[in-house]
Write a structure and sequence with these properties.
With 181 residues, the chain is mostly helical. The chain folds into two domains: 7-49, no CATH class; 53-169, no CATH class. It is built from nine helices and no strands. The protein is globular, with a radius of gyration of 18 Å. The chain starts with 14 loop residues before the first helix and ends in a 5-residue tail after the last helix.
Length: 181
C-alpha cells in the first residue's frame, strides 16, 4: 500500500489547497494509487484566473485539429480547420511546428495521442459528456469523434460555449480522480 503525504505539512499551501489535496489523497488511497510527495503546485482557488469559455473551446478545437493531423489527416485539411475558425492565435509554437511539418514522424504522431484525453475532459467541461470515469483506460475515442466532429467547423461551438458549474466540476473531478493537486 502506498503512503501518502499529509497536506497539513505543506508549508506554503493555503488551507483550501490543503483541503483539496486531502480530498484527492483520500480518493487515491481507496485505489492504492501512488502520489507525488512534492509541494502542492496548483494555485489556490482564490488566485486562479479561469479562462474564458470561448478560449477553452478554441483550445479544444486546436487540440482536435492537431490530433487529427497526428492520426494521418492531410496537412492542408488540418490547417484548414484552424484557418476556417481563425484559431492560429490559440495554437502553441510547438503545435505550429508540428502542423507545418509535411511529414511528421510516426513516433511524434504516436506521442500525441494523449491529447485525446485532454479533449475528452474539455468536452466534459462543456457538458457534452455526462460523467468522467476513473481514468483506467483510454477514453471512448469513437464517442469522442461523434461528439467533436460536428463542431470542428462550427463557430457556434466557440461562441456558445459554457462550462460545467464549479460545484459539479469539483465533485466529478474528485470522484474520477482527475486530481487538482
Amino acid at each position: 500500500m502506498p503512503t501518502y503525504p499529509s497536506p497539513e505539512t505543506s508549508e506554503h499551501a493555503t488551507q483550501r489547497q490543503r483541503e483539496r489535496a486531502a480530498r484527492s489523497f483520500d480518493a487515491l488511497r481507496k485505489r492504492a494509487v501512488p502520489v507525488f510527495w512534492g509541494p502542492l503546485q496548483v494555485d489556490d482557488d482564490d488566485n486562479a484566473k479561469p479562462q474564458e469559455a470561448s478560449d477553452v473551446a478554441r483550445r479544444a478545437l486546436v487540440l482536435w485539429a492537431f490530433e487529427l493531423r497526428a492520426e494521418g489527416m492531410p496537412q492542408a485539411e488540418a490547417k484548414g480547420l484552424i484557418e476556417h475558425l481563425e484559431l492560429w492565435s490559440s495554437v502553441s509554437p510547438a503545435e505550429k511546428t508540428f502542423l507545418q511539418n509535411e511529414n511528421p514522424s510516426p513516433d511524434d504522431c504516436r506521442r500525441l495521442t494523449w491529447r485525446l484525453e485532454c479533449i475528452w475532459v474539455l468536452m466534459w467541461a462543456f457538458e457534452h459528456i455526462e460523467q468522467l470515469d476513473w481514468p483506467s483506460a483510454m477514453c471512448d475515442v469513437p464517442k469522442l469523434v461523434d461528439l467533436v466532429s460536428p463542431h470542428e467547423n462550427d463557430p457556434a461551438f466557440i461562441t456558445s460555449a459554457h462550462p460545467v458549474e464549479s460545484a459539479r466540476a469539483e465533485e466529478s473531478m474528485t470522484a474520477s480522480l482527475v486530481s487538482w493537486t
